[in-house]
Amino acid sequence: MHPYPSVFLKSGKERAVLRHHPWVFSGAVSRTETESDGAIVCVCNPSGEVLGTGWYNPHSPLRVRLFHFGTEVPRVDAAYWQAKLEAAWQLRETILPLHTPTNAYRLVHAEGDGLPGIILDRYAQAASLQLRSAGPRALLGIVVDFLRSKGITRIAVQEAEDTPPAWLDEALDEVVFEENDVHFAANPLDGQKTGWFLDQRENRALLRRYASGKSVIDCFSYGGGFGLHALAGGATEVTSVDISERAVALCQANHQRNPKLSGKYTTRQADCFQYLRELPAHAADIIVLDPPAFAKSERAVDRAARGYKDIAWLALKALRPGGLLFTFSCSQHVDNYLFRQIAFSAAVDAGRPVQLLHQLHQPPDHPVSIYHPEGEYLKGLVLRAED
Ligand code: SAH
Hints:
The protein has 10 helices and 20 strands. Helix 5 (201-210) runs parallel beside helix 6 (225-232) and helix 9 (301-318) packs across helix 10. The strands form 4 sheets. Strands 16-15-14-17-18-20-19 form a 7-stranded mixed sheet, with helices on both faces. The protein has a 6-stranded mixed sheet with strand order 2-6-5-4-1-3. It has a 5-stranded mixed sheet with strand order 7-8-9-10-11. By secondary structure, the protein is of the alpha/beta class. A hairpin with a 2-residue loop joins strand 12 and strand 13. The longest helix has 18 residues, at 78-95. Helix content is 27%, strand content 30%. The chain has helices spanning 15-18, 78-95, 134-137, 140-149, 201-210, 225-232, 245-256, 272-277, 301-318, 336-350, and strands at residues 6-9, 23-25, 29-32, 40-44, 50-56, 62-69, 104-109, 118-123, 126-131, 154-158, 166-167, 175-179, 182-186, 215-219, 237-242, 264-269, 284-289, 319-329, 354-361, 379-385. It folds into 3 domains: 6-69, Archaeosine Trna-guanine Transglycosylase, Chain: A, domain 4, CATH 2.30.130; 78-172, RNA methyltransferase domain (HRMD) like (Transcription Regulator spoIIAA), CATH 3.30.750.80; 197-385, 3-Layer(aba) Sandwich (Rossmann fold). The structure holds S-adenosyl-L-homocysteine. S-adenosyl-L-homocysteine binds next to helix 6 and helix 8.
């Protein structure tokens, strides 16, 4: 016997759970012993054998999010969660010193850390936490205690997708942090993501290595992460372009935080599709395309593919000979293979010989459970336009 209510799977629907996939969809469920949102449940095969333990959500097609696999049912108490949080902390302590210096990074990457539904980003001594469903929401106190024990005292929390985040105690206007000795500020309350796109840190460091003496256009710039790294790498001129007034203001504020950067920096509030269409030939040595997810669902993939292709085609046409295109997609529904096809067909249509120099992805503080390939979402390519 186990202490939690059971959720029984339909016959033939056990396979994904046996392979440690952390999601059980409503169509796989035959019967449940609870309807309570956020209840801890045991997922069982039709004969009642436990396959895993997770959180129940009666309101979502994603009925159970599993955080534990196997017949043994864990005692899910504070110590259980503390051990998982500590494992996530230790992973970062081990891997981050091997990479780009930073004091902002993802501390918990949901399923990738065995903590489904929990996103926790650290910004120096502050943190931004997302607990957008009832199961994870019950862990708020445990996560806060854990963070305080690590000296992280200012915490912003978002408790549901449709409610704005809020600071727990004292409010901060912004969080300040460094990536690669470039200084940034962002606001978890009115920013995008948890305030910053931490997942592009290693790719910004790569751009920086190529930037010396170059002119760079940073499209879909948000707060200027790529653009300011290009300046730090010695770019002579950089233009950051974003449709959002707030993003453009954040670029300017972030630029001012780095008075030592000597190249020319310009910001433009514009629709990047339009902006790219109006670029003359030989407009830049390097163009970065880091748009928002064009495909939010499987159904939107065709349209998204056209969007990614259009901007890549426009950018490739505008590059100087030997110029580089850094192009990204954060759509989970556009996989690596499709993204390559899109970029390569843009190159063919642009009529330029193009070489593939790098294939990029999310950094290791955004780990992917190999049983949950959906966790791998960020992909990028560096293409060189030869003549
Ligand atoms: N490159 C950024 C992250 C970009 S997020 C970084 O390194 O942090 C995507 C950005 O695209 C958002 O800031 C959003 O305001 C902007 N955006 C969305 N649609 C746009 C469009 N059509 N033209 C220009 N910017 C757009």
